[in-house]
Amino acid sequence: MKYDIGTMVRARGREWVVQPESSEEFLMLKPLGGSETESTGIYVGTGGEKIESAAFDLPKSTSFSAASSARLLRDAAKLAIRSGAGPFRSLARLGVEPKPYQLVPLLMALRLDPVRLLIADDVGVGKTIEAALIARELIDRGEVQRVAVLCPPHLAEQWQAELRTKFGLDATLVLPTTVKRLERQCRTGQSIFDKFPNVIVSLDFVKSDRWRDEFLKKAPELVIVDEAHTCAEGTEGRSKRHQRYRLLEGLAARNDRHLILVTATPHSGKEDAFRSLLKLLNPEFAKLPPDMSGADNDQIRTQLARHLVQRKRADVRAYMDANTPFPERSDAETTYALHTEYAHLFDDVLNYARESVRDTGEAMNRQRIRWWAALGLLRAMASSPAAAAETLFNRASMADEQDAALIESTGHSLVYDPAEDETDALDTTPGAQTESEASENTRRLLAFAARAEALHGPKDAKLTKLRGIVQDMLGTGHQPIVFCRFIATAEYVAEALRGQLKGVEVRAVTGRLTPDEREGVIAELSAHTPRVLVATDCLSEGINLQRDFSAVIHYDLPWNPTRLEQREGRVDRYGQASPTVRVVTLSGSDNRIDRIILQVLVRKHRTIRGTLGMTVPAPDEVDSILDLVFQKVLLQERKDAIMSPLFELPEQADLDLRWQQAADREVRSRSRFAQNSIRIDDVAQELKATRAALGDTLAVQQFTLDTLKLAGVTVTEKQGRFQVERPALPELRDVFGQGMRVRFDDVQERGSVNLSRNAALTEQLASFVLGQALDDQDDSLAKRAGVIRTAGVTTQTTLLLLRHRFHLNGRKGNRTWQTLAEELDPVAFQGSPDHPVWLGEDAVRALFDLQPDSNLPPQVKQQRLDAVLQDFDTLRPFLATRALTRSESLLEAHTRVRGALRGLGATYALETPAEPDVIGLYIFVPQPAGVRS
């Protein structure tokens, strides 16, 4: 027998609801009143289990409870729904409650077919949530069946965790380290991308000749590209970018593929790179005029605005009066002066570096090897005596290399901070030795190394300064991350702080650890307070740390200003518990290298960010400018000549000008293409409909606290934290264990569980209360019936809690599909069932807040309920009409947000297979005059 989705059946001694994934021989069932975790599959084909149809009974007149039942049961039934009938299909299934501003990209996407969207919101605003929300919505609408995320490899595991925990999507990692194992799971001739429906793929892995064509043939209908700016094709012609862009061009060539590009820096001051991304959204954008300003180009900008959302934190902080608690950032610079012995060593090393880079008539390759070795040595000297010693002991990795291009790329990666699109962060120390072990220069370097090792501890003024900064931060309640450039420095600093800071847990995370090991160290460290994390730039991307840390110390200045933002962005983001994030930048007052970086890069970066409220990456010329500046340092003979001309270098002025021009272009770009295709009224309309259908965090707080109060559980509140003591009921202990600290806001706080509308614990608690009521247990916290005498009504008023189940049928081209939509619908009437006067929505909502003013004898309550139940058949025509009205409203909402009424993409039709279930029935009778409460 075939069972339609949404129908009730009885099997294994209980009632179930048939789910959309069912077939004629295999039913996917969710228990009536149960959670999705209790869903199961039952084989009903030949020889399978016996299944029989079931009906939803009306409430019993013999089982009733107090007035609080109506509201408690309403909230439980609403919060237990996971196939919501609001305008968005996905919001009831998420493990996160999106902020109103995060619905804007979703609305924009649903008005496009195919979805071609560039999400370019600021760092820490939640672009991952916005992109994944679109994917989840299209899946739940039945329009998409498979999803791929293309991202840098160090972000793959974070994407996997986000999709699994917040969006209920299991995705397979396709990386160089996993591909052989995945291939073994495939049949002969089967592609990995056929075998696994949802994948997270290393962008640099799949762009290769070996995999690109296969991915283009088998790629899912929806592809999300993270850090999309690293794929933009500009005039620099980098081979990696070129390959990435060719891959994205191939994906975009299929005109029905959904493509979502995600980046915080789409423009980056490079007009050609920005336009290359726009062409992926719409081929027509290749014809955009060079200047898109002016009234003549209004239509062009309007068309672009449909595909581009780009907002700063200030734009979303109070969007629709919903406060998003981004922290304030407190920036400070502080300096130290080198110990006398360290200063002497620095001068001696600098003199050696000058000698090594002078033109001695050697071949160009040898000159460049010496150049990179000298720069690397100076950078290590500025970092720590540990990094300096290790560099002095080590042979330069390119010392014997003959290939000029490889010498440059290796030197650049080891010395500078590579661009994120070129390689992962390197934190190994460079080598200084370029000659044989027996050479005089090598003996000098080894002697320097011995001197550097003797500078550990008290003679390291930088380390002493750091200790004071850390102690100050810990004293003000901040938990800091100390960022270093080299592994040797990080391990040295961590060991020193462990010995100096009593009672403080200090751990180091560097490139020596795998991504899993890094997360393990952080999890262990986060259990301690106070705590200090010392890390290299292997942690500047990929792991969000706002829950556990609230301060950043730049122990080593990055030579790429983008690293500043990446480091600080680990803690300065949405969900940070501290209202203020502290940032301290440490530099040497008499350290020539630090002075150059501070003046040329760091302060300019901070000035632009402070002025514009956003980050603008440094121009591509920054490395060549630094080369010129360092040449100035290394080729000057006198110390005073090294310091004074530094800030008069013409090339630096040129860099400042180019950087400011890039910032100006970014401002103009944002003003021209600011998201204006979705009005606030559009979001407000859909948000109101969603909250009406599903409830929100405020409803969760009230429901949770009401449930615990009725169950006799002690709850205490302090500064937004609710401590739930050990429940007596075993079922509630399944939810709250032996006790739990919970929050109902956005603050991510170690030791607290955030209960949003979509949290697993919320569904578990709601399903428990609803299941108890539907099973009609004697000790149910909520009953399906009640009679309340109150002064809040003047005539008998009956409240019905209805649950509708609709079939939402979708069609796109030749493909059709069906999904289940559920809705809780309270209605009420005055008078008797045979002559009802139905109330408006506001009057119905007011009934839930009425309190009893006096009691009625149990037999009177039963008589009142019996009288309504006996005449209930007279209400059925209204209920059928109500179901039809609600289905029409639901269909209108779905076609409105998807744009189907304008002939775009998928179209929808709705079936109302049966009259609604009556979850609850509550009668309110007037308080007689003269009767005392």
UniProtKB/TrEMBL annotation:
Q: Keyword set for this entry?
A: ATP-binding, Helicase, Hydrolase, Nucleotide-binding
Q: Which InterPro entries match?
A: DEXDc_RapA, Helicase_ATP-bd, Helicase_C-like, P-loop_NTPase, SNF2-like_sf, SNF2/RAD54-like_C, SNF2_N
Recorded superkingdom: Bacteria
Gene Ontology terms, MF aspect? helicase activity
Provide the leader sequence positions. none
Q: Where is the Helicase C-terminal domain?
A: 468-616
Output the PROSITE patterns linked to this UniProt entry: HELICASE_ATP_BIND_1, HELICASE_CTER
Q: Does the keyword Magnesium apply?
A: no
Q: Which residues form the Helicase ATP-binding domain?
A: 108-284
Q: What is this protein called?
A: Helicase-related protein
Q: What is the lineage of its organism?
A: Bacteria, Thermotogati, Deinococcota, Deinococci, Deinococcales
